Amino acid sequence: MPFLGQDWRSPGGYWVKSEDGWKRFQFYRDDDEEESSSDRRQLEIGQLQEESQESRIIGEDCEVIVKKRKKDHFNNNTRTQYFCQEKWIYVHKGSTRERHGYCTLGEAFNRLDFSSAIQDIRRFNYVVKLLQLIANSQLTSLSGAAQKNYFNILEKIVRKVLEDQQNPRLIKNLLQDLGSALCILIREVGRCVLVGNVNIWVCRMETILNWQHQLNNLQITRQMNKGATLSDLPLHMQNSILYKFSDGLDIVSLGQVTSTLHMLSEDRHLWKKLCQYHFAETQFCRHLILTENGCVDWKLMYFTLQKYCPEKEQYGDALQFCRHCSILFWKDYHLALLFKDTGHPCTANNPESCSTPVSPQHFIDLFKF
């Protein structure tokens, strides 16, 4: 490759590759040099200049492409979630010699693999509840990249619900809380900390309204299966399935399918078990509701207690927190059984005893400083 000198005192020198190696090209010809040789060298100079300029342009283009790729990778400018091989994050609340600063909620939200978690039926409710809590109280704590990641994951959730037609009520509640929070933030712009341009938030609000319209017009298609259905099961098996439900609205919805399921869904003992699962006995005394016969109306008590008392949270899978390493991580139970993989680089002698499940509210509390 030719070398062009940068010395301002002279036009510099061109180096030409020959059989004997690189030789410096002389601009001034000798008196005995023939004119044809001079023309040939002038032609070589022109070619070298063109090659040098072309190489410089290609080098600049490559540098621009590399910078753009790095920017897309680290600033999450693509529509995919922030890519990170390590699906765990170290939670530190102070500065040390090894680590400066502290971990933020937005950083944890970017690092943990929530895009893959929503595809797992055991983690779906957990992620939805976490998004709902962030929408209610921590939306202004998210950075610009975390906001983009938040709405990208929300878009994937809405698309998933529209495709498989499962859990639409959970997403409707999430969008309702998020829309209310955005209305307050947009109305009070200038008096509260709102990261990003207000026009971006207005566009996001319009997107939320569009999603709500799509979910409200969602028509559940009837599954045409030739196999056995829930109604074909024996009566005691249908009753056992109802006792596995932890949400009263799901029991009411299932009771609207057939008359047999409606009869089973009105069982007093079923609603009593549901109340005892979610609420304490001291709460029963405060909101005791009796029927005309003097018996306790457990179904009405459940929906009454639901308004005043928080229900017991139940998730198929949740984030784990290692007390020894102070690391948040998703635990893959299949890898844990096959390869004894803990999901993070734990240095404890017994990693299983150091990890505890983290509720969505506890997840947010870890980043309140």
Give a description of the structure.
Strand 4 and strand 5 (about 325-330) form a beta hairpin. With about 375 residues, the protein is of the alpha+beta class. Residues about 25-35 and about 75-85 have low confidence and may be disordered. Helix 8 crosses helix 10 (about 260-265). It is elongated. About 55% of the residues lie in helices and about 5% in strands. The strands form 2 sheets. It has a 4-stranded antiparallel β-sheet with strand order 3-5-4-6. The protein is built from 16 helices and 6 strands. The longest helix is centred in the first third of the chain and has 40 residues, at about 35-75.
Figure out the total of helices. 16
- SSE order, as H and E? EEHEHHHHHHHHHHHHEEHHEH
Mean pLDDT: 77
Number of strands: 6
Strand content: 5-15%
Structural class: alpha+beta
Strand order, sheet with most strands: 3-5-4-6
